[in-house]
Every structure is written in C-alpha cells, then in structure tokens.
Amino acid sequence: MGYKVLIADDEMEIRNLLRLYLENDGFSVKEVASGDAVMPEMTAFKPDIILLDVMMPGKDGIHVLKDIRETSNVPVMIISAKTADVERILGLNVGADDYICKPFNPLEVVARVKSNLRRFYALGGGEEKSEKITLGDLELDIEKCLLIRAGEPIELTSVEYKIMELLMKHPGKVFTKQQIYEYAWGEDYFVADNNIMVAISKLRTKLDEDPSKYIKTLRGLGYRLEA
C-alpha cells in the first residue's frame, strides 16, 4: 500500500494498538506522544494521513490541527475520548476530515483510514490524474489535489476538495445534499447530518468574501457551482 500514517496520542497502549493493526495492513507508521511533536514529525516523516488525539501534553489536538491547516490539507482523523456532539463539530469545523470516539474498534479505524485515503488520493487513475479543470478564475489540479483561484492556491480539507471536484466537473448542475455527502464523505447520507452545511460554509469563506459568488444554494434542491 505504501501510505504513511502519523499517530499522535499520549497513551502508549493506544499508539501500540493502532500501530499493530495499521502495520499488519501494510501501512508505515510513526508515533508521537505530545502535540508539540506533531509539526516537526510532519516535516520529517511527511505522512499521508494523521491520527490525532485531542487531549495531549503541550498543544492540544485542536490547536495542532489549526497549525496543520495553515500549511497542509493532509487528511486528519481526530481520535478522542470527548464524545459530545459539540466536540465533534468543533473538530470538523477546524478542519478534521473524520472524528472517532474512544474506545474504538481498531478494525474500524483502519477501515476509515483507508476510506479517507481513498477519498483524498485515489482520484480515478489513468488520464484523469493529469487533468486540470478550469472554470473562470478557478483551476482544479487533479494530480496535485490543489485548488487555485486567480493564481493563488487555496488550502482545502479532503472533504472540501472532493466537493469542489464534484461541482467543478459539472458546472451549473444541481447536486442534492445526499449526492454531495456520499461523494465527499464516501458514506451513506443521514438526513439530520449538518456536516454538508458546515463544509459548504467554510468552503465559501475560503473562495471569496461574497459567500454566494461561486456556490449557489437552491432551496429544497441542493447546491451548484456557477457555470
């Protein structure tokens, strides 16, 4: 498989358990036990995905995630004992791609690691990987998983990237919340799930000061990108 996973958790038992299951599935794994060690290890190890605890010595996971998002859109999965919805929403708002509560099933963690990697990196292969989609002053570089506006790169989470990929491949087409969720999250859609609203809102903020310049809301129908 060849993917590299960075585990940041102050509990040795948790790190050992995750390492065991991930390495058995072919992943390369590095561990750190404090928030302060994450950014240096990112530079040295260059992980493809990060499993990040919230409560750690030094910087907590939320502040570490903010630091990561200043320089990278690498997929980040929060693994935390904090199970309240407000904590999960906070993590997703800051830029997490997934949120897993402790205690967890390590097989589920491995499955969700694969899902996040597949969603972020596996873009269909073949000719599509060298494709660039241009729409006005927006350009989506499929090979580099990069969105550029007026020549300037925009840092996106993997979910935000997949939303833009879907919308830019079909400018002017209306997509329902279910279609967007299942494409970007790779999971079955739950009617009460507000992750789409949060992701679209954050994406609009990154695209322009005018929240409706690029992505339009059609009440009762869904969203479309201006053609």
Task: Produce the secondary structure layout.
Blueprint: E1 4-8, H1 12-24, E2 28-32, H2 38-45, E3 49-52, H3 61-71, E4 76-80, H4 85-94, E5 98-101, H5 106-121, E6 132-135, E7 138-141, E8 146-149, E9 152-154, H6 158-169, H7 177-184, H8 195-207, E10 215-218, E11 222-225
Parallel strand pairs: 1-2, 1-3, 3-4, 4-5
Antiparallel strand pairs: 6-7, 7-8, 8-9, 10-11
Helix pairs in contact: 1-5, 6-7
State the share of residues found in helices, binned by percent. Answer: 40-55%
Q: Kindly provide the name of the CATH class of the largest domain.
A: Alpha Beta
- Based on secondary structure, the structural category is alpha/beta
- Determine the mean pLDDT: 86
Major pleated sheet: 5 strands, parallel
- Order of adjacent strands in the largest pleated sheet: 2-1-3-4-5
The total number of structural domains is 2
Write a structural description.
The protein is of the alpha/beta class and 227 residues long. The protein folds into two domains: 118 residues, Response regulator (Rossmann fold); 100 residues, Orthogonal Bundle (Arc Repressor Mutant, subunit A). 40% of the residues lie in helices and 20% in strands. It contains eight helices and eleven strands. The protein has a five-stranded parallel sheet with strand order 2-1-3-4-5, with helices on both faces. Strand 6 and strand 7 form a beta hairpin. Helix 6 crosses helix 7. The radius of gyration is 18 Å and the shape is globular. 32% of the residues are buried. About 4% of the residues have low confidence.
